[in-house]
Amino acid sequence: MLFNDVVYRVGGYQKKSARLMEYFHHILSIGATGAAAFNITQICDMPALRAAFTTGPMNPLLRFALADVSTPFLMLWRRGNQQSTLWYTIFVILFILVRIVYHGFYFVPTLYQVCPNKRVQYGLIAYQSIQVVSLFFVLGKWKDMLSGKAQKQARDKEEKDKAASALEDEAAIAAEAAAAAAGATDGEEEDKKTK
What we know:
By secondary structure, the protein is mainly alpha-helical. The protein folds into 2 domains: 2-147, Four Helix Bundle (Hemerythrin (Met), subunit A); 148-195. Helices cover 83% and strands 0% of the residues. It is built from 8 helices and no strands. Helix 2 (16-43) packs antiparallel against helix 7 (118-147) and helix 5 runs antiparallel to helix 6. The longest helix has 46 residues, at 149-194.
């Protein structure tokens, strides 16, 4: 995200409010998983956590980080001027598999059960709620891409911008002509006064 906004300065399809939500989501995720990494033994039932996650890391930070496995494909799509349906489709599939299926139906509910700390549970609810809301935006964008609506909107915007630019050019020409005519009229009046 920071690479998109700061390093590459890639323009996006997002409105500012959606981008702010994306930053909020990442700050929440980093804060919650960071807190869990340092306080896991105090906030979770460790025997239950070990029983629930028999393979892989005990620290939930790495399991949360799986959510970003789809992000490189989103960045490739954005970097390619949002033309490749392939990159966005791969992003959507991974988004659904990791953030909705794995996190939503297995990881987050399991963590909710083995970590009875209310702050953790509210954080998990907020995290998964953001994933579900984001899913609607992602699917809406994907539907528009597949139907050609996004390309049509981009063409319409480009045509509208060209038309607005042409009107501005015409207005500038008309203003110059009016100024020239006014200058000619002023010159004629001064000629009459001097005669």
